């Protein structure tokens, strides 16, 4: 975060869903002032003090963009450590006794993007992470200097949220997504609540199973097992991936697909026809034996 304006815009998104009026009411200030604060005017110290007290924000982060956004709490540190331990069970050792340890996981996986870019009017720019930049994104996703070097775009009807665009790398999601096409993802804040089964997500992860930008269908088993299961659409050539929360950096839900090839329904239709023909053939063979 390079400016106070960007940080305040992030707070408006985080605490009020991008609603300037709601955020203004929380602080007992005018909506016009909030609009100015997220676009061009730096707030007075008294307003910054209100924001810091109301939302328990770190002054160092609010003024300088350094450190964590929220004030550190010993209770939070202990809680996070307990959750990390709770999700470390191997698949073979999971049982009903383990599930009680996973109950606090919801707080642990509620995260927010560390860098948000805006234009001169205070609107979100959609940052593009092309294939050639994805190796660096794994370590640079929280670095404003790195993010500013990536190309940005304004896209129609992409608003009232935080979005990022990623380039598809490979054929694991064929025929749904094609290699070198693009997907636009919306930031997912609460992993337990907001990740829905079998929807497409961009998961930025670093683990022994896989690392980098992963675009897959997801099964959300955070409450039950402490895991996300990532599934390819091309299951003949690619395998499922299991990730634990401490291996995940970011999650974005796919909202828009930009590509030059459309899925061919004839492929699925031909498979169904072949299956029907095979069944009829087997039925005829069985009748002949009888």
Question: What features would you highlight for this structure?
Answer:
nine-stranded mixed β-sheet, single chain, alpha+beta, Umud Fragment, subunit A, 434 Repressor (Amino-terminal Domain)
* Largest sheet: spatial strand order: 2-1-3-4-9-5-6-7-8
In CATH, the architecture of the domain at 126-258 is Ribbon
Count up the helices: 12
CATH topology of the domain at 126-258: Umud Fragment, subunit A
CATH class of the domain at 126-258: Mainly Beta
What gap, in angstroms, lies between the N and C termini?
76 Å
CA-based gyration radius = 23 Å
**How many DSSP-defined strands?**
9
Shape: elongated
InterPro entries: Cro/C1-type_HTH, Lambda_DNA-bd_dom_sf, LexA/Signal_pep-like_sf, Pept_S26A_signal_pept_1_Ser-AS, Peptidase_S24_S26A/B/C
Organism: Faecalibacter bovis
Pfam family, one: Peptidase_S24
Protein name: Transcriptional regulator
Layout of helices and strands:
Elements lengths: L3 H13 L3 H8 L3 H7 L7 H11 L3 H6 L9 H13 L9 H4 L5 H4 L17 E4 L4 H7 L3 H5 L3 E2 L9 E5 L14 E6 L3 H4 L4 E8 L4 E11 L5 E5 L9 E3 L4 E11 L6 H25 L1
Parallel strand pairs: 1-3
Antiparallel strand pairs: 1-2, 3-4, 4-9, 5-6, 5-9, 6-7, 7-8
Helix pairs in contact: 2-3
Protein name: Transcriptional regulator
Keywords: DNA-binding, Hydrolase, Protease, Transcription, Transcription regulation
Organism: Faecalibacter bovis
């Amino acid at each position: 975060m390079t400016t106070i304006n960007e940080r305040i815009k992030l707070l408006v998104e985080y605490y009020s869903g991008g609603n300037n009026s709601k955020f203004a009411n929380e602080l007992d200030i005018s909506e016009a002032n909030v609009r100015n604060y997220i676009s061009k005017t730096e707030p007075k110290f008294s307003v910054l003090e209100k924001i810091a007290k109301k939302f328990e924000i770190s002054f160092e982060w609010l003024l300088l963009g350094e450190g964590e956004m929220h004030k550190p709490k010993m209770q939070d540190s202990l809680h996070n450590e307990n959750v990390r331990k709770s999700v470390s069970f191997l698949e073979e050792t999971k049982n009903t006794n383990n599930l009680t340890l996973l109950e606090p996981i919801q707080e642990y996986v509620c995260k927010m993007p560390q860098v948000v870019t805006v234009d001169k009017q205070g609107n979100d720019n959609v940052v593009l992470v092309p294939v050639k930049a994805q190796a660096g994104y794994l370590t640079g996703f929280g670095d404003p200097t790195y993010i500013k070097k990536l190309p940005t775009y304004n896209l129609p009807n992409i608003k009232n949220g935080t979005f990022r665009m990623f380039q598809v790398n490979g054929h694991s999601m064929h025929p749904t997504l094609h290699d070198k096409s693009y997907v636009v993802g919306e930031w997912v804040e609460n992993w337990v609540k907001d990740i829905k089964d079998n929807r497409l997500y961009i998961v930025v992860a670093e683990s022994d199973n896989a690392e980098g930008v992963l675009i897959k269908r997801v099964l959300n088993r955070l409450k039950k097992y402490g895991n996300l299961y990532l599934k390819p659409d091309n299951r003949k050539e690619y395998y499922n991936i299991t990730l634990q929360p401490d291996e995940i950096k970011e999650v974005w839900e796919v909202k828009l697909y930009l590509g030059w090839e459309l899925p061919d329904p004839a492929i699925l239709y031909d498979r169904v026809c072949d299956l029907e023909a095979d069944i009829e053939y087997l039925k005829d063979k069985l009748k002949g034996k009888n």
